[in-house]
Amino acid sequence: MRVANMDWRMIDDWVRQDDRAVLPLGSTEQHAGLSLLTDAILSERLAFEAADPLGVPVFPVVPFGVAPHFQAFPGSITLRVETLCAVVRDVLDSLKRSGFRRILIVSGHIGNAAASCLAQEWMMDNPDCRVRFHDWRRAPRTLAQLQATDPVGSHGSWAENFPWTRLDSTPADEAKDTVDFDRLGTLPPFEVRTLLEDGSFGGRTQRADEEMLAIWRIAVQETREMLDAW
């Protein structure tokens, strides 16, 4: 259940019989022809669809992440690593005060990986709590389905082009050569924009919705099983 549809009494009732909660993490950054909020949209929607049948509360997505490499693209926002970790720590502290002891972080942005280390550190100080960091695209079955669908796909490509991240202005199916990742990792933001041009890392821009929904169903099920196993 989305916390947006709950009041504080409902949370109080929930934690009396279950201490699980879900916290989605996203990012606001360029995704070529897709929504700037692609990572936030996907992590929040996935968290809700996975948790809703179990009744587990899903908190609002943290919409900003660590994305310094895209700062030459207008509309992209980045947090410093220490800022992201401070925000996640404060949220975890607040969730614990509310009575939650098992928290699943669902991340839709690889740049937020530092939050995984923070979660381990936080549990060291809070041994009565458990936090799992779930980078949903890299979960085993989801990643296998992505690669089986098309081994060439990355940031801003078909792999993130779902019906709910697509815009009216999103290009139809096109193909782009894969970027030189070794070079990309050495460049400052302005040069990253020059190298990427439209912002995509390469591959096709779109695949059939049937293929994307098949990936999505696996991702939802894999996330739900992780949450249900607790």
What is the fold's blueprint, element by element?
Elements: H1 8-17, E1 20-25, H2 38-51, H3 81-98, E2 102-107, H4 114-125, E3 130-135, H5 140-149, E4 175-176, H6 181-184, H7 189-196, E5 203-204, H8 209-228
Helix pairs in contact: 2-8, 3-4, 5-8
Structure description:
This is Creatininase family protein. With 230 residues, the chain is mainly alpha-helical. The chain has a single domain, classed as Creatininase (Rossmann fold), CATH 3.40.50.10310. The chain has helices spanning 8-17, 38-51, 81-98, 114-125, 140-149, 181-184, 189-196, 209-228, and strands at residues 20-25, 102-107, 130-135, 175-176, 203-204. The strands form 2 sheets. The protein has a 3-stranded parallel beta sheet, sandwiched between helices. The two termini are 17 Å apart.
What keyword list fits this structure?
single chain, 230 residues, mainly alpha, Rossmann fold, 3-stranded parallel beta sheet, two-stranded antiparallel ribbon, 8 helices, 5 strands, 42% helix
Low-confidence stretches: none
Structural class estimated from helices and strands: mainly alpha
End-to-end CA span = 17 Å
- State the total count of DSSP E strands: 5
Mean pLDDT: 97
